Amino acid sequence: MSEYHHLAENSPAALVLVRLNGTIIAANNAACRLLGLYRQQMEQLTVDQWLARPIERTRDALAHIRASSGTYIDVTLRHGEGFEFSAQLSSRVFEHPAHGRVASIVLRFNAALATSGDEDADVAQVALDHIDEAAVLLDSNTRIRALNPAYTRITGYDEAAALGQSLELGAARRGADSWDGLIEAMSPGERWTGEVQNRRRNGELYPAYVKITALAPSEDEAAAQFVVVFRDLSADKAYEARIEYLAHYDTLTGLANRTLIEKRAELARIAVARDGRHLALLFLDLDGFKAVNDSLGHATGDELLRHVADRLRSAVSKTDIVARQGGDEFVILLDSISKPEDAAYVAARIQETLRVPLTLNDQTVFTTASIGISCYPDDSQDLTTLLRNADMAMYRAKRQGHGRYVFYRPEMDANAHWMLQLRNNLHRALDRDELHVYYQPFVDVDSGTVTGIEALLRWQNDELGMVSPVDFIPIAEETGLIIEIGQWVLRAACRELQRLHARGYDHLRVAVNLSARQFRQTDLVAQIADVLAETGLASRYLELEITETVLMEQAGATLDTLHGLHELGVAVALDDFGTGYSSLSYLRRFPITYLKVDKSFVDGIPGEKGDLTITRTIVAMARSLGIRVTAEGVETAAQGKWLRHWNCEEAQGYLYSLPLAADDLEWLLCNHDMLPVSGEIGTLADNQSSVLEE
Ligand SMILES: Nc1nc2c(ncn2[C@@H]2O[C@H](COP(=O)(O)O[C@H]3[C@@H](O)[C@H](n4cnc5c(=O)[nH]c(N)nc54)O[C@@H]3COP(=O)(O)O)[C@@H](O)[C@H]2O)c(=O)[nH]1
C-alpha cells in the first residue's frame, strides 16, 4: 500500500473519489464513518443517494462537484441510519490515469449546527434525535438527566416536565414496585431487559420493551449513571394481533377459520367427553353459489357470503362456533348438545334463517344451503373423521335436492365404492333396457283432476337394485351420458303422452326434466323440434323443467334458448323455485310458463311462518306476472288446503300420487275421482286454522 493510500485511509477528513456522473470510486474510513455506511455499501451508491432532498440542492451539489471549486457549500446528507444531518462539501476535478475525469470530494460535519465541537459526539446526538426508541440518561440518583425527542413522543413528557424527575414519571412501571429500587441495585455494566406496561402522560397504557444499562462511573462522576432505552410496542402488538387474527379468522366474513374451529372443537371434545354430552359438526354448503358468482359477479358473491355469515351467527347460540371453511362452505360446531337430534333443530333453524329473502344488487333472492351433520362420539371419536363424515352427509343432502340436511350414516362410507359401481354400469343401462320412465300427476287443487304428468326416470339394475335418479343423474351429467339418456326420456315421454291423448286424455301435458348439460346444448331447440316431429306431439303439450341455477349460468345464451323454446310453443317450468338463489326478477326477464315451488317450503306448511310467507309471496308474484304455479312435494291434506286457500292452482306430491309406471298411471287416470280435492280433504287441526289467514 502506498504512503498516499495510508494517508487517505487515516486522514481525519472524510474523502470520497467520484466520477463526474456521481458514481463513487472510493471512500476513506472517515467518509464511511460520517455517512454511517460500510465501504461496500458506500461504493455501490451515487453521490445523489446520500444527498438529501430537495432535488435542486442535489443538482446544485453535483454542479458544484463538477465545477471543481475548492470552496465549501452546505449540503444535507442522509446517514445510513436514516436521519439527515448538515455537512459541508468541497471538490477538486482532476484527470485520473484509469478513470478519466474524476473529482475528489471532502465532506465535513457542519460544526456550525453542532453543539459541542466534538464531531463524533454531535453525530451521536443527531442519531439519538432521530431514532424511534426513547432514550433517557439517569443520574446516580435515578433522576432523569437527559432525554431524546422519541421519549417525549412516546410518553408525552417534554424536557420541562421530565428533567430531574424520577423515571416513574410516565415511564416504565413495574407493577406496584418502583423502578428506582431495581435500577439502583444494578452494578456497573449490568443490563436489565424486559417487556413492561408503561403509562403515557394522558394515562393511556402501552406495552414497551425496555433496556436499562448501568454505566461505569466516569472520572468526574462518583457513582454510576444509567441509560434507559425503550421502544413502544403498540404497533408491533397490533401487528401481532393482526397476524394472530389472520391465522384464526376469515377476513371476508369475520368468522372463525378452519384452524380455529379445529382448536375449539378439540377443546369442546375434551369437555363433552368428561360430562357425557355430545357435540355436532354441521358442514354447510350454499346451493348454487357458483351461479351467483358467475352471473352477478364476485363482489355480489362476497356480499352474499357476508350476509350468510351474519345469518348463521344469528341462528346459533353464543357458545356455538361458526367458521368459514373456504368458498361457500361453512362449518358450525355445536359444542354441547344433550342428544344428536338437537342438531337437527339447529339445522332446520339455519335453513329457515337462510331462506328469508335478501336483496342483492337490488334483486330479491332466496338462499338455501345443504347441510351434513355428524356427531361426537356416535359418528367418530376423531375430529378429522367427524368433519369428513359431515362433508359426506352434506353431499348426500345436496343430491336430495336443495335446502336439505342429512345426518351422517356409516353406509355413506361405502358411497365411494357405490358410486364407482354406478359409473361402471350406467353407460350400459340404456342398451340393457334398464331405464324406465315413471310419471307423476299434476293435480288441479280445486277440482282434483289430473292436469298433466311429470316424467321421472328410474334405473332398475339386477345387481344394484332400483337406483335413485338423485344418485345417477349427477353421474350421467358428469360423464356426458345425460345427453343420450335425456333424449331417450324426452322421446319416451312424448310417445307416452301421444298414446294417452289417443286414449282420450287429450288435455294432459307432460313435463320433462332437463339438466344443465342438456340445456347448454346449442342445438337444443332443434333437437326438441325433431322429437316433437318424430312423435307427432303438439308442442303446446310439452313442458321442460329447468332449475334456476341452470338459468343463471349463462344469462345471454339462456335467454336465446328460452326464446327459441317459446317460439316453438314449448312451455318452460322453473323447478325447485325458492332454492339456489331464486330471484323473483328472473320471472320478469325470462319467458317462463310454470313455476314449481320447492318441496322444502311446502314441507313447512302450515307450521313454519317463514315458509308460509315465502310460498305466499312466490304464488302472488308469479300470478301477477301470469305465471302458473305448481307446488311440489305435497304430502298432507293440510298442505293441500292451505295451497288452495292461497290460490296455488296446481299441486304434485304423494298426497295425490307417487310416480307411477305407465300402466298404473292409466289406471289412475281412469279412476281420477279417487284423487283428493283439496277443499274436501280433511280439515286443518283446530289450532292450525288461523294459519290460513296469516
Ligand atoms: N335431468 C333429469 N332429472 C331427472 C329425471 N328424472 C328425475 N330427475 C331428477 O331427479 C331428482 C329426483 O327425482 P325422483 O327421485 O324421481 O323424485 C321426484 C319425486 O318422486 C319426488 N316427489 C314428488 N312428490 C313427492 C312428495 O310428495 N314427497 C317426496 N318426498 N318426494 C316427492 O320429487 C322429485 C320430483 O322432483 P322435481 O323434478 O323437482 O319435480 C329430481 O330432481 C328430478 O328432477 C330426468 O329424466 N332427467
TrEMBL record:
Pfam families referenced in this protein's UniProt entry, alphabetically: EAL, GGDEF, PAS_8, PAS_9
E.C. numbers: 3.1.4.52
Gene Ontology terms describing biological process: cellular response to nitric oxide
Keywords attached to this entry: c-di-GMP
Protein name as annotated: cyclic-guanylate-specific phosphodiesterase
The organism of origin for this protein: Salinisphaera shabanensis E1L3A
SUPFAM superfamilies from the UniProt entry: EAL domain-like, Nucleotide cyclase, PYP-like sensor domain (PAS domain)
Top-level taxonomy: Bacteria, Pseudomonadati, Pseudomonadota, Gammaproteobacteria, Salinisphaerales
Keyword Transmembrane attached: no
A GO MF label: cyclic-guanylate-specific phosphodiesterase activity
All residue ranges annotated as the PAS domain in the record: 1-42, 127-167
Cofactors: Mg(2+)
Span of domain GGDEF: 277-410
PROSITE patterns attached to this UniProt entry: EAL, GGDEF, PAS
Keyword Transmembrane helix: no
Segments forming domain EAL: 419-673
Reaction(s) the record says it catalyses: 3',3'-c-di-GMP + H2O = 5'-phosphoguanylyl(3'->5')guanosine + H(+)
